[in-house]
Every structure is written in C-alpha cells, then in structure tokens.
Amino acid sequence: MKFHEAGKVSISVCIMFIAALTVCYILFMANLWWVNLIFYAVMLVVAAIVIRFFRVPYRIINKVENGVLAPADGTIVSVGPAFEYEYFKDERIKVSIFMSINNVHVNSYPIDGNIEYIAYHPGKYLLAKRPKSSVDNEHNTIVVSKNEHEKVLFRQIAGFVARRIISYPEVGDTVAQGDEVGMIKFGSRVDVFLPLDTQVVVKKGDKVVSKKTVLAYF
Q1: What is the CA radius of gyration of the chain?
Q2: Would you call 188 a catalytic residue per the annotation?
C-alpha cells in the first residue's frame, strides 16, 4: 500500500495542527490523567483518519472486455433510468456510488477508450446521497468512448465534507480500464451513466470496489 500524492499537504497540515494543539494543551489545560488520555486518543484518531483516507491499496485490475468496472469504492445508492442533461442529453441508466469517509477515494476508469469530454463545474457541498447533489454540488464530468455504441459518462461529485475534486485526464487521452482518474477528498459520490441496453448486474445496497467490481456489461 502507498499514499496518494494529493494527500501530502493535507497530512502535513493535519500533523502540524495536532502538534500545535498538543503544545497549547500541555501549556494551558488541566493535567488530569483521564483528560490527557481522552485528548491524546482523539488526536490519534484524527491523525489516523486523515492518513488512512489517502491510502492507495495495491489491486490487480479485473479486466473485462465488454464490462464496465466500478470507478469508485462504496455503496450503490441508486440504479435506474435517468435523463443525462449535460452531454448525451437523453435517457440513460444511472448507477450511483456513495463513498463514505472510510472508503478508498481514488477513482479509476470504468472502460478502455478515449477521453471524449471533460467538464468541471463549481457548486455547493450538499450531502452526496441527495439526488440534487449531482447537479447542484461541485462536480467533474468525464466521458470515455470505446466506440460509437460503448460510451460511459461518469461524474465525480463533491459531498458535504469533500472540498476538492482531483482529475488528471485531458480530452483526447487514451486510457485503460482500471487506471487512475484522480480522487475526491473526504466523502463524495460517483454517478455512472450507461446506454439503456446495458445489462446492469448490481443493485441498490451492494458494496463495490474500484478496479474489481463489474457494474454492467455492454
């Protein structure tokens, strides 16, 4: 396992904040043993959460030629028809993956292909589970095209805690299924839009793993 480059600043700031808070506590606060125990335990938990958030576990990609892999770790919160308003402007099957703070937050490409479209949209920070967050929240839309009939649009959506979407691709890039797209910091959601004739094999409540779980087949 390694840690994501994007986490270096966040981890450093967190450690400096905890160090400064600890110094202030030692200098000015009561020194009861049980209060000390609670304080140090809380600081340890906060540091562990921030460091753990940026973990990048090693995974062998489950390459599936006609399959669509999950672009994110998390829980399926909805599966069903939805109008894709931004790029395709037609009815699609939408699969929504909610990423809790405990999930790995590195995102990956669901299929092989070429980057056909990218658009970043600033916005609000509503709870990522809310349907309106797909439109109202800060989000980044990416379309990967394998051929004329096999195209996937997926949308990185910032959540209530998330404050930054990191995305590396550019239009025209050739990408491989399972390779890293970027990440969303601290809790978020990824929506995947598929053609109507796609065979979806996940349902609401399922746990999915990026690079591993097949969401659907073309």
Answers
A1: 20
A2: yes
